[in-house]
User: Fold these one by one.
Assistant:
Number 1:
Amino acid sequence: MAKLDLPAVVYDWLVAFFTGHAHRTVYNKEVSSTRSIMASIIQGSSIGPASYTVTAADLQPLYASNRFFKFAEDTYLVVPAESVDTRAAELSNIITWAATNNLKLNKLKTKEVVFYDSRRCRKLSPPPLLPDVDRNTTLKVLGVTLSSNTSPSEHIRRVVSDSAQTLYALRVLRHHGMNDAGLQTVFRAVVVPRLTYASPAWRGFITGADLQRVDAFIRRCKRSHYCPSDMPDIVDLMEAADECLFCSTLNNPHHTLHALLPPQSTTSQNYQLRQHVHDRQLPVHLGHLIDKNCITRSLYKDMYLLLLLL
C-alpha cells in the first residue's frame, strides 16, 4: 500500500486498520495464547478485495505468451502449447514471489489441466509432469467445471445433480403447506439460475446428450408442478442469457468483455434488408473453438438469421 500514490489520510487509515490484529483458537473449552497477525487479508472486510489486488499486482508471468488470471480465491496461469517448456520456470517464479510477499504456495491445492481440441487431437503427447503438482482432467473455475477436452458434460452433470438435491427442499416446503405457486417461485429463484449459471461461457460446447439431460430434469420438475408448465426449455433460457450478456457488453464501454468486441463496421450499404442488433465487423473465421465463444456466436447470430431469410 505504501508504494501507491495515496492521500496521507487514506494511508494513515489503512495503517490503523491493519495494525493490532491478533488470533487465538478456542477448542474444547481450552483457549490458546494470542498471537499477532503481521500479514493477512481479512476475509469479509470491504478493503479485502482491494488488498488482494494490490498484493498480487506485481505477480507477472516471466514469458509474454503466458497469462495470469487472478481472483481472490484462486490464481490461474494459462500457458499455450507453444510455451509448454516454460511451465517449470513460471512455477518457480510463483514460489519465489510468494516467499517475497510472506506467502507460501500450497502445492496440495495446485493442479494442472492440459486442455486439447478433441476434434483435432489424434495422438496427444502430454507434457511431462511438474514436480509435486497433480494433473487433473477437470478444473472448477468460478463455479464452472472445465474439462480437458473442452466438453461441458461434467459441468452439466454436476449442475443437474445439485439441482435435483434442491427438489428435496421443495418437497419439504410442500409438506409444510406451501402451494404450487410458491414452489414455482422458489424454483425460478434457485434452480433456474443454477442451471443457466455462466451458460454463455459453455453453451457453444454443449452436446445433444447434455441438452437431453437438462430437458429430462425440467420435464420431471414440471410433472411434479415444481416449475410452471409453460416455462421455456433450456435452449431458450440459454438464448436469453446470451442476448442479455451481449447487450450489456455492446452498450457498456466499461464492461469487462467490451474490449473483446471487434471495431465498428465502416461498410456503408444503400439497402436495408432487416435491422441488425450491432454495427460491429464480423470476425475472421479462426476455427471452430473460437466460433463457440459467446462474443463470436452473438456477432454472427444476426447474420445467420439473415441467411435463413434469404
Number 2:
Amino acid sequence: MAPRSYATAVQSAGALALLLPPDESMVSDPSPLLERLDGLILAGGSDIDPATYGAERHPETKTTWPGRDEFEIAVARGALDRGLPVLGICRGMQLLNIALGGTLVQHLPDLVGHSDHMHTPGAFGDHEVRLEPGSLAARAAGGELISVKSHHHQGVDKLGEGLVATGWSVGDETIEAIELPGRSDYALGVVWHPEEGGHDAVIGSLVTAARSKAPV
C-alpha cells in the first residue's frame, strides 16, 4: 500500500493517480497495465530482497516482499521499453537500479559511518543534495543545490546498465539521484521523498513529461 502522499502529489500536479498492486500474472508481460499509463512512479517502501541482485542478506536488511520486487522490476523494465517516463522514489530508485542490473549497499552506515539518512525511525530527515548541472535531476528539482527529506538505510552500489549518478548528499557523497541518458527522455531515480516536501517539483516534472507523451 502506497502512502496517500504519492497520489496527492500526482493529483496536485494535475494528473490522475492509479495504484498498481503486485500481480503475479503480470510479471511475464505487464503490457496490459502499462498501456493504460502515461508515466510510472516506483514508490518507496520496504527493503528489496537482496536475492534480486545476487547478494547475501545483511543483518540490517529487514522485512522484504519478493512478490512486490518481482512485479515492480517487470513493470519498470516494461515501462522503459515502451518509452514511458519513469520516476523511482527511495526504494523505487534502488529498484530502478536493480532492474537495469545494478546492486545495492544494504546498510549505508557501514559505508558512511553514520545513520543520518535514517536518523529517526518513522520520521523524515532534512539534508542538502548537490545535483549535476544540466542533468535531468537538476531540471526536475529546479536547482543544483536543494534541501530534501529522506528516510533510508540502503543505497546504490554498482550502477545498472546505462545509468549515471547525477546527485550526491552534501557531506558524505551518497548517491541521491540516478538517470538514464541516451535511452530515455525521462528515467529518473531520487532517493529522497519529493511527495513529502510540499515545495518539491520532481513529481510535477514527471507529470509534465507524461503529458507530453500521452496520445492526443
Number 3:
Amino acid sequence: MKELYFLKIGGSVITDLSKPYTAKREEIRRALSEIKEAKARKDFEIIIGHGSGSFAHLPAKEYNVPAGLINEKSRKGATLTYLAAKELNNIFVREAIDLGIDVFPFSPSSFGIAEESMLSNGIVEHIKTTLESGFIPVTYGDVVIDRKKGVAIASTEEVFRFLAIEMRPSKVFLATDVDGVFDKDPEKNSDARLVDIVDSSNINEIIKSTDSSSKRIDVTGGMRSKVMRLYDISRNTGATCYIFNGTKEGNIRKMLLGELEGYTLVKA
C-alpha cells in the first residue's frame, strides 16, 4: 500500500505578500515541478494544499469573516473571500495542468461544514475516489458554512486536520518561508534558535512562545495555529508532521524524498 502524504505550500511561498492579489507563478511552477520530480523517484500518493497569501486574507480581514455573520456586509465579505481563494486556486491548478500534472481541485466549502471554526462534518469519499482514479487532489484554505457562526475560515491546516482523521496520512508537510519553528521571532531576534522537535515535552512552551501576531495579514492565526493543528493531526492519527522552508530551491523535493536537513518535526 502506498504511503499518503499531505503537503501544504504556504501563501508566503506562492504569492507576493507586499502586492495584493499577486501570484508568484514561477514559484508555483517550481514547487509543482519539485513534487513531480519527487513522485518520479518515489512511489507515494499525495494531497496538495496551498495557502491564500495576498489573495483571500485581504477580503477576509476587511469584512472580519473569521467572526462569522456579524453584520449586513458579512455575507458579501464571505463570498468575496471565497472568490479570492478560488482565484489563486485556479492559477495554481492551471500551472499544474501546464506541467502535465493530473490534479483535481476541491474547495473545502464543497465538502465540509464547521462548528465554531472547526470542520466537524463532511464527505471525503469523493477525495479518496479521486486519489484512486490517479488524480492528485488540490485543496486550500476557504470560507465554509458554520453551524454556530454562519460562516468561518478553514485554514489549509484545519482542512488537513479534518481530512487526516479519515484518510490517515503517514506524513504531513508544511512548506513556509522560514526554516521551521523558532523559540523566538527570527525577524526580531538575531539569537532565535530553530526548534528541531515539537512533542509532548515542549508543546505548551512552544505554543506560548510562538507569536500568533504578525505584520502580515493572516486571518488563520499565524505559526502558533499551524503548530497546534499539526500537533492535533499527529496526536489523532499518528502522522509525522514537518515544517520547513519551501522558498529554497530543491527543498520541497528533498523533503518529500526524506533528504532535507534543517526543519522542525512535530510529533505527539
Number 4:
Amino acid sequence: MIHEIINFLQVNPNLGTAGQPRRDQFTEIKAAGYEVVINLALNTSTDAILDEQALVTGLGMDYIHIPVVWEEPTVRDLERFFKVMAQNQARKVFVHCAMNMRVSAFIFLYQVLQLGVPAEIARQALLQIWEPNHTWQTFIEDRLNLR
C-alpha cells in the first residue's frame, strides 16, 4: 500500500509526499494514479535508488530530480521546485526525498508563497512530518519574510 511508504502524507487529492520509496513501491505510486515523481534527495541520500529515473519512466510516469543538499537548501532549488510544480499543477504529483523533511518544507513554502494557503494551515502538514531544525527553520523564515 502507498500509505506504507515512509512518512507518506496525502497533502491533497493531487499531491502526495513521502520519504524514499522502495523499488517495489513505485508500482503502487503508479497504481494510485500519480503521473509525476519529483525527487528532492541526492543520489547519495539514505536508500537512494541510483536508477530511479529509469524505474519511474519505465512505469510511464514523468521523473524530475531536483537534488537539494540537506545542510544547505537554496533559493535556486526552491524556485526550480516552484516552476516544476506550476508546470504540473493539473497532474497528480508525488514528491519525495529521503525522509519527507526537505519535501515537507518545500511543500509548506509552495502552499504559502505560490498558492496563498495561510501559513497556519500549511504548517499543519509540515508538523505531521517534523519540527524543522535550525537550518530549515531559518530557510523557511527567510523565504516568508521576503513576501
